[in-house]
Amino acid sequence: MSDMVKISGEPQSVDALLESYAVGPGPVVRANFVTTLDGHATGGDGRSGSINSAADKQVFDLLRALADVVVVGAGTIRAEGYGRLRTEDPAMLELRRKAGRSDHPVLAVVTASGDLPEKVLEPDPDAGDLLVLCASAVSAELTERLGDTAVIACGADTVEATVAVEELHARGLIHVLTEGGPHLLGAWLQAGVVDELCLTVRPIIAGGTGPRIVEAPSGSELLARFDLQHALAWEGDLMLRYVAGRV
Ligand SMILES: NC(=O)c1ccc[n+]([C@@H]2O[C@H](COP(=O)([O-])OP(=O)(O)OC[C@H]3O[C@@H](n4cnc5c(N)ncnc54)[C@H](OP(=O)(O)O)[C@@H]3O)[C@@H](O)[C@H]2O)c1
């Protein structure tokens, strides 16, 4: 575990948050999730939007601002109603420009079925580009709709995590953020491609039987182990940044 654990109860300025979440010049794959105290990844409405908070949203926006590409599973795209990504906060826009990034992050959607909602397929000139990381079985159909630069086959029947990350890197998209969901995170943890997990723990109990942040087959071995980089306590939420350790 890291020697320094930073606890602060105060709302964080953009600069202070940036110091806590800065990325280095090299490639990184980060995951960002929110969970309730009882381990739920969604509220009763089946969305993570109903369990997040203003503080969590600030970290969420910052992590997006530090990413070249945001990778999201098709299940989350469908459940949360994702469209292409747009940086609206002027402070985040400034951060992106200072770092030499495009104004808006690329959205990379992971799908085996190719079943994507119209909202994400529709071009949006005021938002970031769309990439679809798909199984080769559905790539021809998606290419017909989106053009061949937007569609990347990363496996026969599924999307291999290592191939997906290599393909993003090959396009200069080295700071990779995944916002989930649980099946995608499970597959990427199994493949060992996740370098960091940023997790907000909300001080609420959802009850019921909603999903946890990881859906993966249980086995006799640990899926992953992380070391704590920092812990920020902020407006009742715990903002945790973990880096991949050894299983
Ligand atoms: N708490 C949080 O931070 C958080 C974050 C994200 C999502 N969520 C919640 O999680 C729920 C969705 O859960 P989910 O597990 O269904 O989300 P998901 O992982 O985003 O979606 C699963 C779907 O994504 C595609 N997919 C994921 N991994 C794949 C792989 N390795 N290869 C090919 N396709 C892959 C498949 O799409 P196809 O079916 O198109 O083949 C699969 O059915 C929603 O309720 C959402 O609100 C919570």
Question: Which characteristics define this entry?
Answer:
Dihydrofolate Reductase, subunit A, 247 residues, 8 helices, alpha/beta, binds NADP nicotinamide-adenine-dinucleotide phosphate
Written description of the protein model:
- By secondary structure, the chain is of the alpha/beta class.
- The protein has a domain at 26-31 and 66-192: Dihydrofolate Reductase, subunit A (3-Layer(aba) Sandwich).
- 28% of the residues lie in helices and 23% in strands.
- The model has no long low-confidence stretch (mean pLDDT 93).
- The structure holds NADP nicotinamide-adenine-dinucleotide phosphate.
- NADP nicotinamide-adenine-dinucleotide phosphate binds at residues 33-34, 41-42, 46-48, 73-76, 79-80, 110-113, 115, 158-159, 179-184, 187, 211, 213, 215.
- NADP nicotinamide-adenine-dinucleotide phosphate binds next to strand 1, helix 3, strand 3, strand 6 and helix 8.
